[in-house]
Every structure is written in C-alpha cells, then in structure tokens.
Amino acid sequence: MCELRVRPPRQARDPHVSLPAAEVQARLKDALESGRLSGDAARVLTPHLLDPVVREPVLEAALESKRRGKGDLVTFSRNVFIPLTNLCRDRCAYCTFAKLPESAEARTYSLDEVRDVVRGGLATGCIEALFCLGDKPEVAYRSHQEWLDERGYDSTPAYLVDACRAAFEGGMLPHTNAGILSAEQMAELRPWNASMGLMLENVSPRLRERGMPHFHAPDKDPALRIRMHEEAGELAIPFTTGILLGIGETPEERLETLFVIRDLQSRFGHIQETIVQPFHPKPGTKMRAANSLPDEEVAAWVAMARLVLGPEANVQAPPNLAPEVLELLLRSGLNDWGGVSPVTVDFINPEAPWPTLPALHERTTAAGHRLRERLPVYPEDILGRPEMFDPNVRAAFGRFADAEGFARPGPAMEAA
User: Which end is more exposed in the chain, N or C (fewer Cβ atoms within 10 Å of the end residue's Cβ)?
Assistant: First the structure.
C-alpha cells in the first residue's frame, strides 16, 4: 500500500521572490529530457506558479511534453450521465449532488429508467454510460435499504451491477464511478464495465479534520481511496482518477497527490486518465462563500499534472468547468476533454452546461489541435492491453471502435 504522507517543501523559498528565469528553464529542460518532473524540481516550482515568469515556461514545457507523447491529438468521450442514486452517506462541504431521503430531489433510478436514458443516448450516437452515485446510502438511510430489499438487493453496489448490465445489454459501454468499492464489488462489475474510476481528490488527511470539507465524509479518507486504486490495479481494471483543486488544500498537498497517482501508475499501469478538476462554490453548501481558483492557476496545475505524470499520460480537464478558457487549457498540456454529453447534464455540476460538440471541435482545431472521439477507454489499452477487459467488453469493442481503437465517427462530429 502507498505510504500516505504529505511532505513539506524542501528548502522552501519565499513565493514572493521570483525564481531566476535560467533556473526555471533548466529544471524544465531536465524534465523534458528525462520525461517527468523530479520531486525536487516540482517542489521548487510549485510555490511560484502564480508568477508569470514561472507559469508561462511551465505551460510551454507541458505543451511540449504533451506533443512528444500525444502529438496534436485531443480526445473526448460522448456519453450519457446516469446518477443511479443521489443518496449518499457523505456530507462534503461543497457538494450539491447528495440529497437526503426526504428531499423532493432525492432519486434512485429504476432499471427501466436506466434503459430509457440509454435509448436516448443511442439516438445521439453516445457510447459511454457514465454511472455516478452516492457512497453507501444504505448504511445511512434505512429507507434506501428497504428499497433495495424490496427488489432483492443487499447493497447499492449489487443493484449497480444490474444497472450496468442493463446499459451494456442496451447497447452502451458503462464507466462506473460509485465511490468506495471493495475488490469483490469491482470484480462483479467488471463484466459489464469498460472502465471504472474514483477521484483521488487529495491525499492529505488534513482535509478530514474538523472544519475541513471532508469532516463528515468517511469515504473521503485518503487511505481508503488509495487502497481502492491499488485493488483496481491488482484486478487490472482501466481506472480514472483525478485531483480536485481549491477545496482548502495547499499547493504542496496537490503536488503530493500527483506523485501518489504517478506511483500508482508505475506500480500497476492501470491509470487510464487523470482529471484536473477545479472546485466552484455552489449556493446552499457550507463552502458557498469560498473563492474559485483563478483560471491561470487551474491551467498551471493542468501543466504540473502533465509534467509530473509524463508525456504518455492522459491528462483531462472538463470543458464545462472552464468554458471561457479552453484555449488556455489546451496550452497547458491536456490531451482529453473527458465525457461530453449531448443528452444529459453534468449532475455533479448542473450549473455548468456542456459545450456543443461542433463548438468543442471548432475551438480545439482553431487552437492547433486535432479532436477525435474515443470510447470510455483509450485506444492504447483497447489495442495494446486486451487482457485488461472482460471478454464481454472486449467483444463489444468491435461495435464501437475503428481500426485505430477510436470511436467510429458519429453524426455530431460529422456535422462539425
């Protein structure tokens, strides 16, 4: 298991004093030549990312790293978002997704409703059925356990298996993000999922202390989340992870989270993508008065993710969370926009509409990149690591993927 710790910066320098430009360039040149930014170099640069003298060369180096690993390619996955249940035992200080059972907005989808969403997705060329749901609601709410009992399920993950099967048999490829799952539960989901995921968010235990955003969220314990990443690696499941920016963490804690992700990938090779996601305050939450990070700082952390994780990593930033600065994000070394839906809203961030696919295509290509649609998993795994997939899923790829492992062109992209 990864040793969980947050290291203090070594020989921390005053962030108000600029680094010499020559030192910045030298450290970034070493990173490009070796493939990844060293721990020492990252800890020197991190306190100065808001300084344009540091940030701009970091962005340039990240873009060069991306070009060396991915060329001019940027990808996305066309999906439907299925929030199977928005009941959750965790009460994160920034979340509006989780509802209490007595709320008029509380909802658990029936299997017929799952099938209806899938049919709507198929009509618009969607391939991915993204399942997101609350953590262990049956533990907190007797009414939900009774709902499951009436239908013959002992837990929400057991119900999720049948929901994923319904989506798979309905003609789509599920990707599941269901919070903390055991190795046994992931194994049961594997025949019906192309990939799975869990946002690591941040590895600092400090964020679970009183007054911090995860104090009432037992499933946000970093050790639990790291262990699930490890168990997914042991099962060879293509796995999505990510870092959440701006919830009260320090720059050093962000950096340590990226190094834990790098370590997981080095050990297991199953991290298919890393999302760099900015927090935005939402009305009605305890963090409603918190400030979002400046766009330039978000871009700097996309760039740091690229430089720490290396040129072959898939680095993703959601386009609906920074719609005014897609070009800046493209300069930061990302190579993926993630899931974009022509059918459903982003139920985690419902205030943030998806860009249309023609608009995303236009802005990506205008910035000098080439946009291609992928499946819920990446071509390098589809073609190069077939052993990572259950035979059911592997057989289904033939319906969706072209000879290069990308999605066959759909109507929205052809129109673009």
Answer: N
Exposure letters 266-281 (e unless 16+ CB within 10 A, then b): eebebbbbbbbbbbbe
| pLDDT, position 409 | 82
Cα 270 from Cα 258, distance rounded (Å): 15
| Domain membership of residue 132 as a residue range | 67-415
CA 407 to CA 153: how far, in whole Å?
A: 35
Q: Is 404 within the bounds of a domain?
A: yes
Cα–Cα distance between 119 and 20 in angstroms, integer? 57
Cα distance from N-terminal residue to C-terminal residue, the chain: 46
CB 282 within 8 A of CB 247: no
Query: How many domains would you assign to the chain?
Result: 1
Q: Kindly report the CATH number assigned to the domain that includes residue 245.
A: 3.20.20.70
DSSP string covering 353-413, please?
PPPPHHHHHHHHHHTT-EEEEE-SS-HHHHHH-GGGS-HHHHHHHHHHB-TTSSBPP-HHH
pLDDT value at residue 7:
38
pLDDT beneath 70, residues of the chain: 1-17, 410-416
Q: Model pTM?
A: 0.94
